[in-house]
Write a structure and sequence with these properties.
Chain lengths: 559, 204
C-alpha cells in the first residue's frame, strides 16, 4: 500500500547549500555498477602483470559482461619526488590508465603506452572509453609496504585515517582526448546509467593498486604477507576534484534534472509507504548505526566542513532517539520521519536521512537508476512562437529567485567563470580585479535570466520569442535554458553561481555524491578530496557479498 | 587528426565563440557541424571558411531581418538556420549572399517530421536536400558567400552512411584552434593560485 507524496519542490532542493550536503545513496553510480556486476555475474581476470622491482611496468585487468569485455590498461611509473607537483600543474603521475573497449591486443597496449602516460597531451581512440591517472598517498603507501614486507598487517587506524593508497586526479570519458563518444556506447545496457565506464575504471584501478602494494612488499622481502581481506576492503580510491567539475552541473541541465528527479521520486515513493514492516524498520535502524560509524571516520580540516560535521553528529544523536520510536504500527512512518527531519536536523542531516530512507527499499527505488541518463549532445529546441509575455511569465516562475537579486551590487556579480589558456580548465575569478570579464563562460543563469527579463520588458507582449531572438541573439542560451527548466524543473541550480560568497565545493559535492563518493574533505572553497569504493567488495568477493551495503561501514567488522 | 564527435562539437563551439558569436548560437552551430560531420562532409574546412568570411562583423549584421536580409555584406547560415528553426516553418526564401548555406540544412531538418516532405537548399553550383531524417548534398560545395534559394520539396533522398568520427587535417585543425583559442583567458599567476585553487600541494 502506498500513498502519493508530492516531490520536494525545486526551490527547496536546488539550493547550493542543500546540494552541498547531498550524500551517496542506492541511486549512486558506483552502487548501480556493483549491483549490475553482481546481477549479471561479470567475471574478472588479470591477464598481465609485468611490474618490475621498482614498481614500473604494465598490467591488464579485464571485466567481462555477458556480452563483452572491457580492459583496464595500467601503466605504473617511477615518479621522482620532485615531480610530485601541485595538482593543477602536474605533468607526471605514479600511474596512468585507459579503459579499452574489448580485449586489448599487444598493438593496443603499445599504442596506448605511447599516449596514456602523457594524459592530456596524448591521444586515445574510439576503442577507449576513459583516460585517467593516479598518485600515491605518500603518507600511507610506505607504511603499508613496510608493514606487509615485515610480515604484519598495517595499522588499521592509519589505514582508516587516510582511506586510500592512491588518489585519481582525473578520469576523462565521453569522447575526451579521442575516446569513444558516449552516444556510440550509450545503447549498451551496462553503460546506459551515467558514468558507468568511469566508475568501472576506478573500480578496476582499486584492484590494481592493491595488487601493486602487495607486489612492492613482496619485492622488498621474501617474508612479506598479503593484506588481510577485511583490512583490504577498507581502502578506497582517493580523488581530488577541482573546479573543472563544477560547470558540468550548469552545462548538463537535462542530465542533472534526471539525477535529482530520480532521487526525489525515490524519496517520494518511500515517504508514500503506508506502513513499514518490522524488518524494514530494523534495516533502517542498522543503517543509522552504520552511518554513525561512517561519520566517525569522516575527517576534515576545512573549517566549514568541521562545523557541518559537528552538526551532523548532533543530528545522528537526535535521529537515534527518533528511530527508537518508529514502529510497524505507524502510519506513513517515513513521511513522518522526513517532516520531523526538516524541522529538527541540519541540511547535512536531512539529506543523510533521505539517503538512509532508501536503503530498506531497493525493490521500490532501484529501478529509477534506469531514468538517470540524458542525451545532451543536441541543444533543446526553442519554441519561437511563444509570446514575449509568456516568456516573461515563465522566467518569473522559474527564476523568481534571480529576479529578486540586485545584479548591480558588487557582491552579486563579483565573480566570473572563465577558461584559462593554461591547462584549458575552468576557473573562477574576481571580475573587478582580474582581466577575465570578456572571457566569461555562460555559467550564471540567474543573472542572465534577469537580463533577459529586463530586455523583454521593452518589447510588445504579443511579439514572438523568435522575433525577439533575432534582435537579441545574446539571450539565446537563456531562452534555451528556460525551455529546459520549464519541462525539467530540477535542471537549474536556484542560486547565484557568481556571488562573492558562493562555494564551488557545493557544486562539486552534489555531483560527487551522485557518483557515490563518501567522506568529503574540502581542501579550500574550490577543491575537495573524496573517497571512492571505500569498503566495497573486490571483484572476487562480489559473488558472495551484498553489492549495496558497503557504503556504510559495518558496526563491528571484526565480529 | 581523428576526433570524436563530441570533441569536434566542442572545438566548433569554441571556434564560433572565438569569432564573436553569442553562446546560444555557438551551441547550435556546433550541433549543426556535428550533424553534418556525421554525414561525412568536410565540415571543419566549411566552418573555417564561414568564420573567416564573417570574422570582425557584429553579430547584428549577420542576423536576418524580417525580410531575411542582413544589414551587413553577408548572411551567416547558422543565423539563418536558427531563425528558421525558431519560426518552425519556412516559406520559399531567397537569401542574399550567404556563407556556407549547407549549415541551414540541420536546422531545416529539425523543423520536419517524418511525413512532412522536405526542402531543397540551392546555391547554384550545388544543392542540398533535407528531410527529417536525412541531409544529402549534390553538386559542388560553395566556397564563398552565394545567393541561396530555399524551397519546399516532396519526396527526397536520404544519406547513405553515418560516420561516428571526424577526420580534420592539420591546417584546418590549426585554423579552428586559432579561433577557439580566443575564448581562453591569458594565464596569470593570480589565475593559477586563486582561480583554480592551486598552490596547496596534495601530496599527503
Amino acid at each position: 500500500m502506498s500513498a502519493t507524496v508530492e516531490l520536494r519542490p525545486p526551490d527547496v532542493v536546488m539550493r547550493l547549500a542543500r546540494m552541498g550536503s547531498f550524500h551517496q545513496s542506492r541511486l549512486s553510480f558506483m552502487r548501480i555498477l556493483l549491483r549490475r556486476i553482481k546481477d549479471e555475474a561479470w567475471t574478472f581476470d588479470r591477464p598481465r602483470f609485468d611490474i618490475d622491482e621498482d614498481g614500473v611496468g604494465i598490467a591488464l585487468y579485464t571485466a567481462t559482461t555477458p556480452d563483452r569485455t572491457y580492459t583496464l590498461v595500467a601503466f605504473a611509473h617511477d615518479l621522482p619526488d620532485d615531480m610530485r607537483s601541485d595538482r593543477v600543474i602536474a605533468t607526471a603521475w605514479d600511474c596512468t590508465f585507459a579503459l579499452h573497449d574489448g580485449v586489448a591486443t599487444e598493438a593496443d597496449v603499445e599504442r596506448l603506452r605511447a599516449n596514456v602516460p602523457l594524459q592530456e597531451v596524448g591521444r586515445i581512440s574510439g576503442d577507449e572509453l576513459t583516460l585517467s591517472r593516479a598518485n600515491r598517498s605518500v603518507r600511507l603507501w610506505s607504511t603499508v609496504v613496510d608493514a606487509l614486507a615485515a610480515g604484519r598487517q598495517p595499522d588499521v587506524e592509519a589505514v582508516e585515517n587516510v582511506g586510500y593508497l592512491m588518489r585519481t586526479t582525473a578520469v576523462y570519458g565521453s569522447g575526451k582526448f579521442g575516446a569513444a563518444d558516449r552516444q556510440s556506447i550509450a545503447d549498451r545496457p551496462e553503460l546506459i546509467a551515467p558514468f558507468q565506464a568511469e566508475m568501472l575504471t576506478v573500480y578496476l584501478i582499486r584492484t590494481f593498486v592493491m595488487d601493486l602494494v602487495e607486489h612492492m612488499a613482496a619485492v622488498a622481502s621474501p617474508d612479506a604477507v598479503r593484506l588481510d581481506p577485511e583490512i583490504r576492503r577498507r581502502f578506497g580510491i582517493g580523488n581530488s576534484t577541482g573546479l573543472g567539475m563544477a560547470p558540468f552541473l550548469v552545462t548538463h541541465p537535462r542530465l542533472i534534472n534526471n539525477w535529482i528527479l530520480a532521487r526525489e521520486e525515490a524519496l517520494a515513493r518511500v515517504r508514500g509507504v503506508e506502513s513499514a514492516t518490522a524488518d524494514e524498520v530494523d534495516v533502517f535502524r542498522g543503517f543509522v548505526r552504520r552511518a554513525r560509524r561512517s561519520v566517525e571516520l569522516w575527517h576534515s580540516e576545512h573549517e566549514m566542513q568541521k562545523v557541518k560535521l559537528v552538526a551532523l553528529r548532533q543530528d545522528l544523536d537526535a535521529l537515534d532517539e527518533y528511530v527508537a520510536t518508529i514502529s510497524s504500527d505507524d502510519v506513513m512512518p517515513w513521511d513522518a520521519l522526513m517532516k520531523w527531519a526538516e524541522t529538527a536536523l541540519s541540511l547535512e542531516g536531512q539529506e543523510l536521512v533521505v539517503s538512509l530512507m532508501l536503503e530498506p527499499y531497493g525493490p521500490l527505488v532501484d529501478e529509477l537508476s534506469e531514468t538517470m541518463h540524458a542525451d545532451e549532445s543536441s541543444p533543446a529546441s526553442i519554441d519561437g512562437s511563444t509570446t514575449v509575455s509568456m516568456v516573461r511569465d515563465q522566467l518569473a516562475a522559474n527564476y523568481g529567485w534571480a529576479l529578486e537579486i540586485d545584479w548591480n551590487s558588487a557582491d552579486a556579480n563579483a565573480r566570473a567563470w572563465y577558461v584559462s589558456e593554461e591547462k584549458l580548465e575552468p576557473r573562477l575569478g574576481e571580475r573587478e580585479s582580474e582581466p577575465i570579464g570578456e572571457y566569461e563562460q555562460p555559467l550564471q543563469p540567474g543573472r542572465d535570466a534577469a537580463r533577459m527579463y529586463a530586455d523583454l520588458a521593452t518589447w510588445d507582449p504579443a511579439a514572438t520569442l523568435a522575433r525577439f531572438l533575432r534582435v537579441h541573439p545574446e539571450h539565446r542560451h537563456m531562452a534555451r535554458r528556460l525551455t529546459v527548466v520549464h519541462s525539467s524543473p530540477y535542471s537549474e541550480i536556484r542560486d547565484n553561481t557568481i556571488d562573492a560568497t558562493m562555494l564551488p565545493i557545493d557544486m562539486l559535492r552534489a555531483k560527487l555524491a551522485f557518483f557515490g563518493a563518501t567522506h568529503f574533505d574540502p581542501r579550500s572553497d574550490r577543491w575537495v578530496r573524496i573517497n571512492m569504493f571505500r569498503g566495497a567488495p573486490f571483484p572476487d568477493e562480489l559473488a558472495t557479498t551484498d553489492p549495496d551495503g558497503w557504503t556504510y561501514p559495518l558496526e563491528n567488522p571484526a565480529a | 587528426m581523428n576526433l570524436s564527435l563530441g570533441e569536434f562539437q566542442s572545438l566548433i563551439a569554441k571556434a564560433f565563440r572565438g569569432a564573436g558569436y553569442p553562446w546560444g548560437l555557438t551551441e547550435e552551430a556546433a550541433f549543426a557541424a556535428r550533424r553534418l560531420a556525421e554525414g561525412g562532409l568536410p565540415v571543419g574546412a566549411m566552418v573555417v571558411r564561414l568564420l573567416q568570411s564573417v570574422d570582425g562583423s557584429a553579430i547584428a549584421d549577420l542576423m536576418p531581418d524580417e525580410q531575411w536580409r542582413s544589414s551587413g555584406p553577408v548572411l551567416c547560415a547558422v543565423c539563418v538556420g536558427t531563425s528558421i528553426a525558431d519560426e518552425a516553418d519556412c516559406e520559399d526564401l531567397e537569401l542574399g549572399p550567404t556563407s556556407e548555406p549547407i549549415f541551414i540544412a540541420p536546422f531545416l531538418s529539425a523543423t520536419l517530421d517524418a511525413d512532412d516532405g522536405g526542402y531543397v537548399i540551392d546555391w547554384g553550383e550545388g544543392r542540398c536536400y533535407v528531410t527529417s531524417g536525412g541531409i544529402r548534398v549534390e553538386g559542388g560545395l560553395s566556397v564563398g558567400p552565394v545567393a541561396v534559394m530555399i524551397r519546399r520539396q516532396a519526396a527526397l533522398p536520404s544519406e547513405d552512411e553515418r560516420f561516428d568520427r571526424v577526420e580534420v587535417d592539420d591546417v584546418t585543425f590549426s585554423a579552428l584552434a586559432t579561433f577557439a583559442h580566443r575564448v581562453y583567458a591569458p594565464a596569470t599567476e593570480a589565475s593559477r593560485l586563486a582561480g583554480a585553487g592551486a598552490g596547496t600541494t596534495d601530496n599527503d
